[in-house]
Amino acid sequence: MRRTEDRSDRGLAAILHTLQALLEELPGLVSDRVRLLILELRLAGKSLGTMVVMGLAALVFGGTAWVALWVGVAAMLVSVAELHWGWAIGIVLLVNMAAAGFAVARALRLVDRLALPATVRQLTRSPLRKPMTDDTRVDDHAG
Question: Is 140 within the bounds of a domain?
Fold first, then answer.
């Protein structure tokens, strides 16, 4: 019986020693992690700034290349197809405006997603309400 008590006391002492060591290390562990977070956030901020600058540079160079491409297309229409320069510029303008219109229309279809509708529905739903079935979902969107 005494051996069991000794073993139990030693086990309890070991647990207490481990807990005390853990509590002594805890402030260091937390501060190290906070310091790491701060350093990584700084690095991420600098990286984001660099990414924005590189994105703007790519936008400028890409825009310049796009203009050069369409100047070449217009020159080809004038020289090869023997179109008047006004018609060539009109065709280039029409194609670019159609592409821009498509991009704007596509972007406008995505605007509703910015309001996070599914999340808002989940957060504003009453917990007392029964879950929606497929039939009620169809009815809600029918009107």
Answer: no
Tokens of 46: 């600098």
pLDDT tens, 63-111?
A: 999 999 999 999 999 999 999 999 999 999 999 999 999 999 999 999 9
How many other CB atoms are found less than 10 A from the CB of residue 73?
A: 14
The helix or strand, by DSSP H or E, that contains position 115, with its residue range, turns out to be none
Q: Is residue 133 in a domain?
A: no
Please give the residue range of the domain that contains residue 47.
Answer: 2-128
Amino acid at position 68, single letter: A
**SS3 at position 40:** helix
CA–CA distance, 55 with 6 (Å, rounded to integer) = 69
**pTM for this predicted structure:** 0.56
**Total of domains in the chain:** 1
